Amino acid sequence: MSMKEIEAQISSLIRKRMTGARPVGLIKCDVGEGNTSFTGEVETGVFRRKKEDAHGFIFGSDERSSFFDLLLQLREASRSLPDGPVYHCNIHIKNAEIRFQYFWENAPFASIKELALNVHGHVPDFVLKRRFDRSMVRDLSDLEVNNCLLLYVPTRVAKRLPVTDALTEVYATLEWQSDVNNGAMDQYFARAQDTMTCWKRSALYGATYRGLLRIRHEAAANLFSESIALYAHFHARVENARIELDIPAVPKQERSDIMSRYYEIEPSVTAARVRYIREHIVELEQG
What we know:
Layout: H1 3-17, E1 24-32, E2 35-44, E3 50-53, H2 54-58, H3 61-78, E4 86-94, E5 97-104, H4 125-130, H5 134-139, H6 142-158, H7 165-190, H8 201-214, H9 218-231, H10 236-244, H11 258-279, H12 281-284
Antiparallel strand pairs: 1-2, 1-4, 2-3, 4-5
Helix pairs in contact: 1-3, 6-7, 6-11, 7-8, 7-11, 8-9, 9-10, 9-11
């Protein structure tokens, strides 16, 4: 189907759910790769206006499923257009009129401030996968600066593009922190590879240690080396890393308070990494 045909189906679906008078609203839709969601509000009524969330007002259980399917079809239909595909769509509702406003992945932009933010208020993922440079980092929030490498580095690796040692080390600190936050150190050391880049963990242990020193967080570097010594008793690749990094051996332990100490310093690791990226973005940019 063409985009116009899909628009007609979406408009028909919306009109079926409109029972109040003089509907006015805006539905913001993310239609990026692997990320389809929406949010919005519709106001109806003549003398006493009533505001309702778009999810409850427009879409029943059946319509909700159909709406998501149509958004996916809209993205696919937009791929062949000059600036396609679409990554975001605003649906404007005013009385009987329903109007579609599109934002395109390949449309030129001078600043990320010109982009449509996703429904959570953040820069869309496709930009973070493509760019990591001074002008972008300057305009990103600290949260986005911290998380952008989880998209940018795996994308470069998937495209078989080189990643410098400096960026690898900073990325490794984030990969370590993300996995430990998700499943503690047991999970981090049990996994043989990074799930995002598919790099071998054995190759990342040294990069993580050097990265923590690079971002000037000596306490985290010391805690990481301690964890290497502790888990070397349970995994041969960790023991090899301990020897290569010249980390002293410790007696085997079944219990440790290392996770509680990790959580005490974890927020400061994020802050140190964000600060380092902002201060050293020229060094970290990839050619």
